[in-house]
Amino acid sequence: MVGVYVSNSSRKEPHYQEMEEAGEIRERPTEVVVHKVEAPPLRTSLSKMKLRLKETFFPDDPFRCFEGQPLKTKWALAAKYLFPILGWAPNYSLSLFKSDFISGLTIASLAIPQGISYAKLANLPPIIGLYSSFVPPLVYAVLGSSRDLAVGPVSIASLIMGSMLRQAVNPSADPLLFLQLAFTSTFFAGLFQASLGIFRLGFIIDFLSKATLVGFMAGAAIIVSLQQLKSLLGIVHFTNQMGLVPVMSSIFHRTNEWSWQTVLMGICFLVFLLLARHISLKRPKLFWVTAGAPLACVILSTLLVFLFKAQNHGISIIGKLKCGLNHPSWDKLLFDATYLGVVMKTGLVTGIISLTEGVAVGRTFASMKDYQVDGNKEMMAIGLMNIVGSCTSCYVTTGAFSRSAVNHNAGCKTAMSNIVMAITVMVTLLFLMPLFVYTPNVVLSAIIIAAVAGLIDIPAAYHIWKMDKIDFVVCLCAFLGVIFISVQDGLAIAVGISICRILLQTTRPKIVVLGNIRGTEIYRDLQQYKEARRIRGFLILAVEAPINFANTIYLKERVRRCIEEENVVEHEQAALRFVILDLSAVFTIDTSGIASLIELKKSMEKRDLELLFINPNGEVMEKLQRANNVHNFLGVDSLYLTIGEAVLSLSSLAKVSP
Amino acid sequence: MVGVYVSNSSRKEPHYQEMEEAGEIRERPTEVVVHKVEAPPLRTSLSKMKLRLKETFFPDDPFRCFEGQPLKTKWALAAKYLFPILGWAPNYSLSLFKSDFISGLTIASLAIPQGISYAKLANLPPIIGLYSSFVPPLVYAVLGSSRDLAVGPVSIASLIMGSMLRQAVNPSADPLLFLQLAFTSTFFAGLFQASLGIFRLGFIIDFLSKATLVGFMAGAAIIVSLQQLKSLLGIVHFTNQMGLVPVMSSIFHRTNEWSWQTVLMGICFLVFLLLARHISLKRPKLFWVTAGAPLACVILSTLLVFLFKAQNHGISIIGKLKCGLNHPSWDKLLFDATYLGVVMKTGLVTGIISLTEGVAVGRTFASMKDYQVDGNKEMMAIGLMNIVGSCTSCYVTTGAFSRSAVNHNAGCKTAMSNIVMAITVMVTLLFLMPLFVYTPNVVLSAIIIAAVAGLIDIPAAYHIWKMDKIDFVVCLCAFLGVIFISVQDGLAIAVGISICRILLQTTRPKIVVLGNIRGTEIYRDLQQYKEARRIRGFLILAVEAPINFANTIYLKERVRRCIEEENVVEHEQAALRFVILDLSAVFTIDTSGIASLIELKKSMEKRDLELLFINPNGEVMEKLQRANNVHNFLGVDSLYLTIGEAVLSLSSLAKVSP
Questions:
Q1: SS3 for B87-118, per residue?
Q2: Do B627 and A467 touch (CB under 8 A)?
Q3: Which residues of B touch A51 (CB under 8 A)?
Q4: What is the pLDDT of residues B15-24, one digit of tens each?
Q5: Is the pTM of this model over 0.95?
Q6: Is A573 an 8 Å CB contact of chain B?
Q7: ipTM at complex level
Q8: Domains and their CATH numbers in chain A
């Protein structure tokens, strides 16, 4: 029950006079109505802990639909949860297949050249890129819950894997060992991804904010493009480092190695690809232009090289590729102590990065089509897909943004489009490999540059700048860190800044001085609302953050400063009688926080001020009561449900007993 | 101006009918009054940034008193700020000196035996402990702003320095190098402390919460006591490790080395010291009992050894100590690359720990006597004191809690008591050193154990357990980490958990469903207030945390879940029309947060629900408006100042147009 007690005074505050003049009003403000602050219903610590754990790890409540179902249905639901294919396959129809077939072929035409290119970016044999576009999409089709995700290798994860492993092993000196490390890293990436999902720790990837990703992606795109300058200019002796400075100096120290034939060919195809991209961006209906362009480039350039025997004129070609499907590679996984550290670290970083991309892509298209994607479930699917991949000669894969967008635009309906793509890649692997012998490396570089150009999102960076300057600083740090230090460090710096920002927000919570909006019982920030007026004798402060160890000292100092400033405003020391602390926004408080409130209350008393608390929430109220049982610091009038009631009640009391 | 617009409906919600029945009421609720949400007055990004920087680094506004003063006064104020001694010395009187003289002598009698003991704890020659009780107090008396702080070496910093440096150098094999490293660590500790103060980063020590410190202190006290078992049992071959397990095994493997004379003497003095401590705790007026007890023990035990020639019966003694004051030691500072790492790390850890103790002690007594201590100024003072100390044969010092409490109880008035103490130590150093030759080591160990026993605060731990279970887990982790792993790691683990907790709070903000309290316009948590009632057709949610990248996904999922649960409650899908998001407690929002609100708004529209925002604060309002200029997602009715107005206005609108 709301306890209502009525003060024994009938005098009112000036701003209620107008109400009074207007006629008789029931109870308020003729007598002051005061509602009691209630503590929440008692619960044991255990049940509270359980609730909190549930909210932390199962906020989406994935098992809700299981409740109250018969056992058989539960099993069926569980199977559907683990294998989403069971949800759509039974009702699959020919008309759905038509759409999926077209989109599957479209993404295959994009996947084949990109697969070859990205594998080269990771310093792996080109065929690994094709292998990685065959097995993982099949696994994902069975386990994944997104309908639009197109699975395969992606540029940034490839780049990171290549650069991190190159620090341990030289890929040209010992290609087999390098390949083994790549498979093992993929295994760890998958293991890590799957465990995040299983232990419901998916929220960890939420710490990569939009701002971080915009900066990071742009930086990585530039690093990737810089690496392509090797093939694009036909340079033979290229630096092993990734940074902007070493690459640029390497390029300009090797001008003698530049091959004009290669440059000419590269620029032509690059312009063609960028134009195709531009057209598709302007008209989403022409999605097939972007989708088909890379394959067209590959075919055209291969023909050109073949006809003009250009390989003899300074244009380097892929060379012979073996026909046949993926070999098993579980025997190649290398858990040797020498390389375990680097392999695990590479797995962790590529795992996180590819997971972030995959989950973000899945969520984006799910919200477009208004269906749900369970983040943790997706992580299990992607993780398992990589574990299986690492045993079948694939390196790290995920849902790629550009390819999924094409998939979506091409009208895919279910994960069947991934199966179609995989079969197309299979056919290529089995029969069409000899066709790639004369494909020039320069065209692969052009494909990579055109693909990563989309990662530089200047409008997004501008939008961030407009919205939030600190977010922009985070974005810029990620960008500069990636370009000038290294891909991993840039990411770490940006995440570090983001976390420091959250911590800083906690350390310096906003404390605003409230005033009354004339004619109402509404109290709002004096700075925001010009009509808000101070009430003589009261200092009303709203604390807008959890009170904890990190900000108690600040809180006390800030309240003291507010009181001093208030005294300057009032020009009469004696006028201030009540300090009101609005705790509505304090959603949690710890031991230090409670101790600081007690201390504040006592130090106010030394200055003849009364400290009041307004609207503490359940948790805060509980702790205040518990502390009060020991320290007995709460008076009868220390707690109010609203500021209005507190002001009314206290000012009438104050006038009765001057 | 508050924009008031009145809806064209005169129909009211049920819970306003009673008001109506009571008579005519001006404007409300005959017509619905709606106040406009205002944006704060425009300010440039630069001025906002300036304000934020000021709030972060100068929350206490230390330069306020400088404003509007003539230049001469400003200089005088600046001098007083840098040298607080100028504030009290000119008005110093004989009566003040009497109090300070007594308290100075009292803490000297405590400082001398403790100085010798703590130096041994740090594996340093005992005389260094006395040196450290001479110069630093003098420096602090000039620079420090606390009137109660008693400066000197402290147990935990000594322990940490000893154990961290011992990992690099064996103090018995190479005592000179060890001493050099100790001075250099002290130098770095001072440098680090002073820079924290100068760069106003003092809030970093706030991250050591009360819970962390309770656990850490208790663990450290046990580790310190365990180390004393060597002297207390008279063991010669003792382990070099600090952990509970190796020490206990070392003790029980060396039972043959136990010396009964030493054990007897040790236990007798320990019981005496603990009794003395107990008496002072019960009666603060008898502070001199604790204060004098250690010196009494030293004198008594020295006499006993001297009379019975006990050094020949298995009782180890300090031995000869050199007379004379501190030697300069700046030539002993060692910036060699081999040891730079360990020395800087030791400086950092001991610096942070001793700073935390010093600042906390200063603040505690300042709030008792109701004067102000500027945390950052104190850090500069303590830092400078240690830098000077490192050049005059002192190791790391700070304000010790136990000694400051004695100082306070003995009635000190100003920092003069530190000068008196320093002079007493000086006299001891010059003339009384030969008296310590026969002091047995066992009594020093007893003094240390009695001193650190006060650090084990079981009532505080129990209080934490009662107040907050997670705080207790932090406390326990710090305790167990210190005991079983190492002092530094225990601290790092506890700080890590505290920070993770803050991050987790941000990731999983509280979102509560509000209901109306009958007969009022007050909306409160349905779970906390049993009288609060849902309003049909409305789902009212309060978000109680800043919305940022770390919680946008959760926010969206949580709102979606609330809607589903609401639909179950209402048993009729069509009933829910409005989702109200109370943003009062959202004190800041970033780019991701704004994007998620837009997305939420759009996805609600797809479900024929209208999303409203209540009372965004200045910053949020500004960003909403800026985003609205681009995305145009805010309708006419999307923002309200209070929930009550939103509900009234919308329900009347809804009834007009069904």
A1: HHHHHCCHHHHHHHHHHHHHHHHHHHHHHHHH
A2: yes
A3: none
A4: 444 433 333 3
A5: no
A6: no
A7: 0.81
A8: 4-37+509-656 (3.30.750.24), 45-82 (no CATH), 97-502 (no CATH)
